[in-house]
């Protein structure tokens, strides 16, 4: 991580998971690093300003609350910037990327429920008039559990293959709404979440801990941006695997070096025959291509038809908004 001080490297690497659930978490981090609470907050503010940190907060398990889908549009090149700006302006969209493919604009939309997601996607299809893929999560094999930026060790996957949805009550919805964009970089951030959700600080901390233990929150901590930290290339690799074998291959792929996400989504025939997806990150394209070739060979996925969609441009990256008015 060239260009980052040793303290910044520790912050970026060591606190992506198991973030302190105490009244003054930045003080607890400062005690571990040998610096003051104020210095921790200032470092994080600077890392956010530099783009290295997206937010500090939860990564919710997809499929457990709300509704979401990976969506792709086939946009004429001369309209790409305008359409990407229109899509990124939607609060429900949390990731939006240009990728090298006929379907060149890929984004994730998340809403409080399936009905709201269906309305949003109908509106996008109607307003754009462009070919659109809607790819829903069916099984997850490895999701965002953090990434060792120093030693390149992967966090062990604990993804639930078929996540069970839960219904939030009004109090829980208010806490999610206050959390989903990240906690404030201030001495007592959970108290701030409590004020926003009309809850006591200790109740907020207990609820986050419960959600983290149950897997509703897959990790809670610093959410980094790979590109700004030197991993400047990423590719979405997709395979056409028999559905009844997807879980076997998905678990094998999830364990391979460089794989940061792995899941099964629906096909959309005839345009999209692929059902197994992996995200692979690396410092350059040659590294990413090598990692993809290696994982395909080691898992036997090289038997199946595949495509590699490199990312060209990031238009938006933030936390999913599963609760309205968050």
Please provide a written account of the structure.
- This protein is α+β, with helices and mostly antiparallel strands.
- The chain is built from ten helices and eleven strands.
- The protein has helices at 6-14, 25-33, 37-50, 80-88, 114-128, 170-179, 189-197, 201-214, 246-254, 285-299, and strands spanning 53-60, 67-73, 93-99, 105-111, 132-135, 137-142, 217-224, 233-239, 259-265, 276-282, 306-317.
- The strands form two sheets. Strands 5-2-4-3-11-8-10-9-6 form a nine-stranded antiparallel beta sheet. A two-stranded antiparallel ribbon has the order 1-7.
- Strand 3 and strand 4 (105-111) form a beta hairpin.
- The radius of gyration is 20 Å and the shape is globular.
- The model has no long low-confidence stretch (mean pLDDT 91).
């Amino acid at each position: 991580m060239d260009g980052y001080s040793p303290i910044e490297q520790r912050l970026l690497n060591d606190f992506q998971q198991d973030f302190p659930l105490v009244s003054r978490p930045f003080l607890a981090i400062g005690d571990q690093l040998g610096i003051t609470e104020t210095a921790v907050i200032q470092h994080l503010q600077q890392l956010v300003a530099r783009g290295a940190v997206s937010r500090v907060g939860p990564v919710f398990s997809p499929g457990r609350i709300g509704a979401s889908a990976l969506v792709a549009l086939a946009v004429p090149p001369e309209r790409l910037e305008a359409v990407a700006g229109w899509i990124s302006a939607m609060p429900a969209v949390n990731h939006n990327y240009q990728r090298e493919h006929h379907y060149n604009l890929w984004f994730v939309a998340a809403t409080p429920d399936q009905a709201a997601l269906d309305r949003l996607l109908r509106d996008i299809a109607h307003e754009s008039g462009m070919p659109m893929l809607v790819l829903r999560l069916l099984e997850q094999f490895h999701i965002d559990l953090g990434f060792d930026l120093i030693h390149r060790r992967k966090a062990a996957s604990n993804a639930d293959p078929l996540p069970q949805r839960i219904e939030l009550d009004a109090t829980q919805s208010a806490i999610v709404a206050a959390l989903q964009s990240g906690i404030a970089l201030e001495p007592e951030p959970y108290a701030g979440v409590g004020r926003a959700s009309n809850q006591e600080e200790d109740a907020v901390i207990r609820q986050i801990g419960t959600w983290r233990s149950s897997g509703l929150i897959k990790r809670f901590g610093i959410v980094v941006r790979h590109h700004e930290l030197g991993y400047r290339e990423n590719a979405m690799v997709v395979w056409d695997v028999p559905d009844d074998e997807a879980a076997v291959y998905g678990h094998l792929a999830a364990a391979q070096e460089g794989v940061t996400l792995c899941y099964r989504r629906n096909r959309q025939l005839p345009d999209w025959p692929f059902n197994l997806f992996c995200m692979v990150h690396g410092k350059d394209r040659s590294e990413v291509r090598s990692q993809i070739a290696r994982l395909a060979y080691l898992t036997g996925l090289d038997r199946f038809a595949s495509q590699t969609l490199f990312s060209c441009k990031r238009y938006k990256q933030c936390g999913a908004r599963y609760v309205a008015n968050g």
